[in-house]
Amino acid sequence: MTINLDDLSVAELEKLIKQAEKKLEKKRLDAVKSAQAEISKIAKDLGVSVDDLLQEKASRQKKAARKTTARKKKAGVRKPAKVKYRNPADSSQTWTGRGKRPVWLREALENGAKLEDFAV
């Protein structure tokens, strides 16, 4: 059954939308009921209650969450690297020796200064 939506009026489209929403809700409820029945059957086949079956999953999830938290704590936050070089002209300009050299240090080295001159 194919409906040409271009031929429908606004009122007919709204009615169609409401019907589709009702049908969608019914299908969702049917799917939930079906899933519940399947879960009950699995629990019965295993000889446990549905609550016990779901409780086991919840406890595994809690354990997994604890492991994840423990891993995150292990990594921790790194301390910032210590300053190894400082600009004598402006003491607020520093460099740890990691990454690209700052402009002030590059310019000074190009003008003949030595890296040791800036060591802290």
Can you offer a commentary on this structure?
By secondary structure, the protein is mainly α. It has three helices and two strands, in the order ααββα. The protein is elongated.
Summed up:
Helix content is about 60%, strand content about 5%. The protein is built from three helices and two strands.
What are the salient characteristics of this protein?
59% helix; single chain; two-stranded antiparallel ribbon; 120 residues; 3 helices; 3% strand; elongated; mainly alpha
Question: Topology, pairings included?
Answer:
Layout lengths: L9 H37 L3 H26 L9 E2 L7 E2 L7 H8 L10
Antiparallel strand pairs: 1-2
Q: How many runs of DSSP E, i.e. beta strands?
A: 2
* Cα-to-Cα separation, first versus last residue: 82 Å
| Strand order in the sheet with the most strands | 1-2
H/E element order: HHEEH
Sheet of most strands: 2 strands, antiparallel
Q: What percent of residues are in strands? A: under 5%
Shape type: elongated
User: What Rg do the Cα atoms give?
Assistant: 34 Å
Low-confidence stretches: none
Q: What share of residues is helical?
A: 55-70%
Count, helices: 3
Class from helix and strand fractions: mainly alpha
Q: Average pLDDT across residues?
A: 86
